[in-house]
Amino acid sequence: MTTSPVISPAVTPEQEAALLASVPSGLLIGGQWRNASDGGTFDVSDPATGEVLATLASATSEDALAALDAAEKAQASWERTAPRERAEILRRAFDLVTARAEDFALLMTLEMGKPLAEARGEVTYGAEFLRWFSEETVRDYGRYLTTPEGKNKILVQKKPVGPCLLITPWNFPLAMATRKVAPAVAAGCTMVLKPAKLTPLTAQVFAQTMLDAGLPAGVLNVVSSSSASGISGPLLADPRLRKLSFTGSTPVGKGLMADAAQNVLRTSMELGGNAPFIVFEDADLDQAVEGAMAAKMRNMGEACTAANRFLVQESVAAEFTQKFAAAMAELATGRGTEPDSQVGPLIDAGARDDVHALVSAAVDAGATALTGGSPEAGAGYFYPPTVLGDVPNDAEILRQEIFGPVAPVTTFSTEEDAIRLANASEYGLASYIYSRDFNRLIRVAEQIEFGMVGFNAGVISNAAAPFGGVKHSGLGREGGSEGIAEYTTTQYIGIADPYAP
Ligand code: NAD
């Protein structure tokens, strides 16, 4: 049976307006949407046009503390709620997000810029955390054993860590929220969520969806704000808060870890990356180019997992680079709501200028722009897909997180060289290796210092896998069976010999 291709109709301005009108504009505190205590607001704009999409209440420090109050009050009954009931709330949330997939996708495209097809992919990925953790909720085992001496007993149980502050970035507005909220719900923690001010609309609708799924008042509180530190400062200083889970840049993460140290808070830190994409001469080059496109262009390169350094063995470098540049040059740039758009705008003017500064410096240092290389004129913060050849090994662009659709290619001669270059970074999040030699893949994976490695695969994120980094890329893991452990604490109960007379 043949099926005809699905042609997405263009989104109409009326559809956009109706969706935006449905977004709650307040703060969610104790199950109620309300205004900021000082009446303050902030605007959310479309990066493709610069136009204001919506105006939201901007939480103050006082609102943040009211949210923590609500979370703390809800904690005791929430943690006694049956795991099955928590699981079913998550499962209903999965069904609701999936049923509203088109709305979530369009909202993310509007506020963040990614093309609709990618936004739909994020809905699938983001919703999966709700389903995965609904399944994990009822399987968070403790243990019981006899001491080695053979008399006393050891009982180990998991308990929820308590009220959590969840801070999310702008690049994956739904998935970064579900990746934290779902395991916190599974573990029985209450939460204060602070989404990025550039893309809070998706989180607002997601929070309402959690309420619709039956989440009790006060378990999830949302304090969107134009002042991130005005929210995190008082919350991290308050002893009722028990955990910080942060996804964002390494410099901000380091500052928050220092603040969190004052109350010895549990922390999960998902920080920046500088992923190497290593292509050996025995790789299937067409497969490597396809993987390179996915690893580079997902989210216009605005992903912590984005391939940031293409390390290609000398003998195949020319062929790989030429094929890669040809494929990148084919991509269509445009507002994410346009049916044929494959590359949306970058998040703001600063992001676009930073990307271009890295490209210009690399070209000045001897690199060649094989495609792209300068910002596009006109409205929106568009930057064309760019491939840079002959990038010197010490170029700044290989050291910094690019966060844009730019692929610098550099070469290596031996396996040892590739490992040394890959490890020459303070970051250690995602990495990608292309080779047909399985033993080589294993050897390299064992020696590179990265939390995640893709073998002949350009996209490795999965709700069932432990996502996270080493070195300056962070601490802790999200997803997998590890994800729930970030929200539990271990209590050991020592039991005296039950056979003692
Ligand atoms: P960012 O660090 O600027 O902001 C992240 C969040 O922190 C936002 O909610 C922001 O409002 C808040 N924030 C900013 N300054 C703060 C402060 N002083 N105090 C308290 N909160 C503050 O990062 P971003 O630009 O939103 O996101 C991009 C970064 O996130 C990249 O470095 C990317 O690699 C990283 N990231 C990491 C992962 C991962 O899983 N490791 C996933 C996505 C993004």
Key terms:
501 residues, alpha/beta, Aldehyde Dehydrogenase, Chain A, domain 1, Aldehyde Dehydrogenase, Chain A, domain 2, 2 domains, 7-stranded mixed beta sheet, 6-stranded mixed beta sheet, 22 strands, binds nicotinamide-adenine-dinucleotide
Please give a structural write-up.
- This protein has helices at 13-21, 61-80, 83-99, 101-112, 116-137, 175-187, 201-212, 228-237, 250-261, 285-297, 314-329, 349-364, 415-423, 438-447, 482-485; strands spanning 27-29, 32-34, 41-45, 52-57, 143-146, 153-160, 164-167, 191-194, 220-222, 243-247, 266-270, 275-279, 307-313, 368-371, 386-389, 406-412, 427-428, 430-434, 452-455, 470-471, 474-475, 488-495.
- With 501 residues, the chain is of the alpha/beta class.
- It folds into two domains: 13-271 and 476-489, Aldehyde Dehydrogenase, Chain A, domain 1 (3-Layer(aba) Sandwich); 275-463, Aldehyde Dehydrogenase, Chain A, domain 2 (3-Layer(aba) Sandwich).
- The strands form six sheets. It has a seven-stranded mixed β-sheet with strand order 14-15-16-13-12-18-19, sandwiched between helices.
- Helix 3 runs antiparallel to helix 5 (116-137), helix 4 runs antiparallel to helix 7 and helix 10 crosses helix 11.
- It is globular.
- It starts with 12 loop residues before the first helix and ends in a 6-residue tail after the last strand.
- The protein binds nicotinamide-adenine-dinucleotide (NAD).
- Residues 167-172, 176, 194, 196-197, 228-229, 232, 247-249, 252, 255-256, 270-273, 304, 401, 429, 469, 474 line the site of nicotinamide-adenine-dinucleotide (NAD).
